[in-house]
Amino acid sequence: MSDTPLKVVVGTALNPAQKKDLMHRLARIEGQLRGIQKLIANAAVQSDCDGVAQQMAAARKALDRSFVTLLTSAMVTHTAGAQNVEDATLRAQHLAALLDKFA
């Protein structure tokens, strides 16, 4: 990934605080993955695989948690912008379909 900071777009998908939280989570996960790459590169004995597996599990859990954070943030943001109950229901159904598809 380049060192150029990403331009954060203002819109209705997520509010700025939600985006900032997710961006920080993903940056930490990116650091974890770089650490795992170093562990793998330096693995010399069989027991080194235990540490790699543990770190991979932690990174996977952190990514899963980011996914949940994305969906819960989207639920709050999308339903808050609904015009009426039917619109809120449609938005919630869309998010439920995302959860069903990707979880």
TrEMBL record:
GO terms for biological process: negative regulation of DNA-templated transcription. Belongs to the FrmR/RcnR family. GO terms for molecular function: DNA binding; metal ion binding. It comes from Solimicrobium silvestre. It comes from the Bacteria. The lineage of its organism: Bacteria, Pseudomonadati, Pseudomonadota, Betaproteobacteria, Burkholderiales. This is Metal-sensitive transcriptional repressor. InterPro entries: Metal_Tscrpt_repr, Metal_Tscrpt_repr_sf.
